[in-house]
Amino acid sequence: MSKTTHLQDFRRLSTVASTVPENGDLNPYAVFIAPVSSGVIEKGDVIVDNFNNGSNLRGAGGTIVLVNLETRAVRLFAKLPRNPGSGDLFGLALSPGRRHLLCRG
After folding, report:
1. Would residue 11 count as lying in a domain?
2. pTM of the predicted model, to two decimals?
3. Fewer beta carbons under 10 A from the terminal one: N or C of the chain?
4. Which domain holds residue 36?
5. How many domains does the chain have?
6. Tens-binned pLDDT, residue by residue, of the chain (105 aa)
């Protein structure tokens, strides 16, 4: 069995855009490319689910951003409302196979 990886051919990495929105959510957990245009999503947009909140609390992120690879523009697509101090944790996840958003809380 070969011990090669798919990443071995990459020689240069470059940053296209930051996926961290204004509220500081981070840890891009689900990332995929939109196969078709629908609503504000344009075909080819990179859709990113930020899994952690700004304090890096796992699963407490509440934003999905869209990154346009041509313009490098980042747009907020979804943001869950927060109830500070309630202890409620919510997470957004993308379901590419089913083409919808999943929300848990």
Report:
1. no
2. 0.70
3. N
4. 19-104
5. 1
6. 566 777 777 788 788 899 999 999 998 888 889 888 888 889 999 999 888 889 998 878 888 899 999 999 999 998 877 665 555 555 555 555 555 544 444
